[in-house]
């Protein structure tokens, strides 16, 4: 084993457990420890499968439990700062405003957004058809701000101004969102646009590609939306995936309560007459 001068065939289960303990002691994140353990397991499984070893010393070594992460939704006032950071009426500004409004307004993934074709948009009815994971199709509603932003972008002064005289690829001609060269906007390009306005709004480091999706779901639940409706909007196969957002909302409610209620953090019974 590396660091001990032990041959692979002589590695034992306690040695691997010591290795995992060493990683933990070094402050590695649970996910990092688990990735390292997966690599060790794969190596020893390969040795067994190929006949180089008679047993797998890593097979019974357990990894670290990875804490369930909660989506880091922005506050509603922070979302407002992001939305108003897009200024101007030129084609690029119209496109960027539509991107941010649609991502937050529908909870769509960035990959779903850049995959939109013109036939998927019904501005008059206020509907979008998006294709999620596994090419699963769903129809989502457009709120008034997202609808208005899309209408402006799809006008001749918006998308029409970025459309080339000759399309390089057939799929580009049907793309809703275009890059500066007139091709279909990529996922990386859309994310760079969102990040640009996040920095303008003073939210640098607060955004990930999914944060507007997280914020959409969390804010809907905060305002009383049914969890099944949010599940359908986001395209989650299981409601258990959506339920993580209820934990976010409950945690936010707890923080607000503790900050605002005069008895939230007071010692029980302090200043009150005894019961009975």
Question: What features would you describe in this structure?
Answer:
The chain is mainly alpha-helical and 276 residues long. The chain folds into two domains: 67 residues, Tyrosine recombinase, N-terminal domain (DNA polymerase, domain 1); 182 residues, Intergrase catalytic core (hpI Integrase, Chain A, Orthogonal Bundle), CATH 1.10.443.10. It is 50% helix and 4% strand. It has a three-stranded antiparallel beta sheet with strand order 1-2-3, with no helix packed on it. Helix 4 crosses helix 10 and helix 11 crosses helix 12.
Comma- or semicolon-separated keywords:
276 residues; mainly alpha; DNA polymerase, domain 1; hpI Integrase, Chain A; 2 domains; 3-stranded antiparallel sheet; 12 helices; 50% helix
Secondary structure elements and their pairing?
Layout: H1 13-25, H2 30-49, H3 76-84, H4 91-106, H5 110-114, E1 121-122, E2 127-131, E3 137-141, H6 144-153, H7 159-162, H8 170-174, H9 187-200, H10 211-222, H11 227-234, H12 239-260
Helix pairs in contact: 1-2, 4-6, 4-10, 10-12, 11-12
Classified in CATH, the superfamily of the largest domain is: Intergrase catalytic core
Oligomer: single chain
Number-wise, the strands total 3
Shape designation: extended
Question: Gyration radius, to the nearest Å?
Answer: 26 Å
Strand order of the largest sheet: 1-2-3
Helix count? 12
Strand content: under 5%
Poorly predicted runs of 5 or more residues: 267-276
CATH architecture of the largest domain: Orthogonal Bundle
Our measurement of the CA-to-CA distance between the termini, rounded to an integer number of angstroms, reads 69 Å
The CATH class of the largest domain is identified as Mainly Alpha
Which sheet architecture does the biggest sheet show? 3 strands, antiparallel
Number of separate structural domains: 2
Helix content: 40-55%
């Amino acid at each position: 084993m590396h660091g001990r001068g032990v041959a692979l065939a002589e590695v034992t289960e306690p040695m691997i457990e010591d290795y995992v303990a060493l990683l933990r002691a070094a402050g590695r994140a649970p996910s990092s420890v688990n990735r390292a353990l997966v690599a060790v397991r794969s190596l020893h499984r390969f040795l067994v499968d190929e006949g180089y070893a008679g047993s797998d010393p890593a097979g019974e070594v357990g990894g670290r439990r990875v804490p369930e992460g909660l989506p880091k939704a922005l506050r509603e006032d922070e979302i407002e700062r992001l939305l108003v950071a897009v200024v101007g009426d030129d084609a690029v500004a119209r496109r960027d405003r539509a991107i941010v409004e649609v991502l937050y307004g529908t909870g769509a993934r960035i990959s779903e957004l850049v995959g939109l074709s013109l036939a998927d948009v019904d501005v008059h009815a206020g509907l979008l058809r998006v294709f999620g994971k596994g090419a699963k199709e769903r129809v989502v509603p457009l709120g008034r701000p997202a609808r208005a932003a899309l209408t402006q972008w799809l006008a001749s002064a918006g998308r029409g101004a970025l459309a080339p005289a000759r399309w390089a690829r057939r799929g580009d001609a049907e793309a809703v969102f275009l890059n500066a060269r007139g091709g279909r906007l990529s996922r990386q390009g859309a994310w760079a646009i969102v990040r640009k306005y996040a920095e303008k709004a003073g939210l640098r480091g607060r955004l990930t590609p999914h944060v507007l999706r997280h914020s959409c779901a969390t804010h809907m639940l905060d305002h009383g939306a049914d969890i099944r409706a949010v599940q359908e909007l986001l395209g989650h196969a299981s409601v258990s995936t959506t339920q993580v957002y209820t934990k976010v909302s409950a945690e936010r409610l707890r923080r607000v309560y503790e900050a605002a209620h005069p008895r939230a953090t007071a010692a029980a019974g302090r200043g009150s007459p005894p019961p009975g």
